[in-house]
Amino acid sequence: MTFPATGGGPLLEGVLHLPSTTGRSPAAVVCHPHPLMGGTMDSAVVRAVCRALTAQGWVAFRFNFRGAGDSAGRFDEGRGEMDDVAGAVDFLCTLAEVDAARLAVVGYSFGAAVGLQQAARDPRVGWLVGIALPQEYYAARWLDADTRPKLFIAGKNDRWAPADALHEYVARLPPPKRLRFVPRTDHFFAGREAEVTALIGRWIGEHTSEEPDR
After folding, report:
1. Buried b (16+ CB within 10 A) or exposed e, 30-41
2. Domains located in the chain, CATH noted
3. What is the Cα–Cα distance from 194 to 199, expressed in whole angstroms?
4. Is the pLDDT of residue 34 over 60?
5. DSSP letters for 120-136
């Protein structure tokens, strides 16, 4: 399926994952890694997250940023990609299967940076998940006053998201928040995707039974 980026941006491709439940479900936009480094919505981590979300009764929507896969447009260094995330949220809000009052943004690597930055300014989003958020973004102040539930996950041996630096970053953010590390793995979580999704699944179960503060 296709949908437009917000603000008259390019037409983007996406894949919608629906749970087996009936009625309106909570929903998540899932954002992929850096497109110039081979990242697409077909990333093993992104696909695993979508499967885990639908198993817990969520709608999951993965998509290709502009210029990736069959999405139109060109890479915009994270600026236009924020409009891509906003467009994905817009799209979910139009679906009869989605409870628009219960929305999350989940991002992996570059997708975490872009997704969290956009979510920080979008009051429609209630829950935020950053997987392997790169260290270059820790100086940003997007979430420094954000009281929505936040989950951060990284590999213990991730050189782009060093454990000590990520711990300091998350420590300065307001609660509710959680930081979890997957041992003996790096930025790519090769063969460890199930551990990432298990952490997300447990957190979702604990933190999405009620609407968060926005």
Report:
1. bbbbbbeeebbb
2. 2-207 (3.40.50.1820)
3. 9
4. yes
5. HT-TT--EEEEES--GG
